[in-house]
Design a protein that fits this description.
about 130 residues; mainly alpha; about 80% helix; about 0% strand; elongated; GtrA family protein; transmembrane helix; GtrA_DPMS_TM; membrane; transmembrane
Length: about 130
């Protein structure tokens, strides 16, 4: 159930990411710069929704945001590399390439966020 909620909340983040990306490249922005702008927009929306709805965590907001942004950086790096491979090496359309990167990045980020960002204090391993 948690992964489904993550996908629904993340789906709104991904939708905003893709919308900003598509509008940005349509206006002439370089696709990698558009990827940064879209990714940041989607990440902030996804953090807010997943913190409240999926993982029901209301404590340590700034610490969790920092961890979420760290995970997002890993996801963004994977996204940028995959996007480059699909656009520059495989010759795919930039919009289609972006869509193809999304499922892989969602699974990666869910696993990392569940393990690190939204782990409850009670479930945290003892040091």
């Amino acid at each position: 159930m948690q992964f489904i909620l993550y996908c629904l909340c993340g789906g709104l983040g991904v939708s905003s990411d893709y919308l900003v990306y598509h509008l940005s490249i349509s206006s002439g922005m370089w696709y990698q710069a558009a990827n940064v702008l879209g990714y940041l927009t989607g990440t902030l929306l996804s953090f807010t929704l997943n913190r409240i709805i999926t993982f029901r965590q209301r404590d340590r907001v700034l610490q969790r945001l920092a961890l979420f942004l760290g995970v997002a950086t890993v996801g963004y790096t994977a996204s940028a590399i995959l996007l480059w491979l699909l656009v520059e090496q495989a010759g795919l359309d930039k919009s289609l390439a972006k869509l193809l990167t999304l499922p892989m990045v969602v699974v990666l980020q869910f696993a990392l966020n569940r393990r690190f960002t939204f782990q409850s204090a009670q479930a945290a391993p003892a040091n």
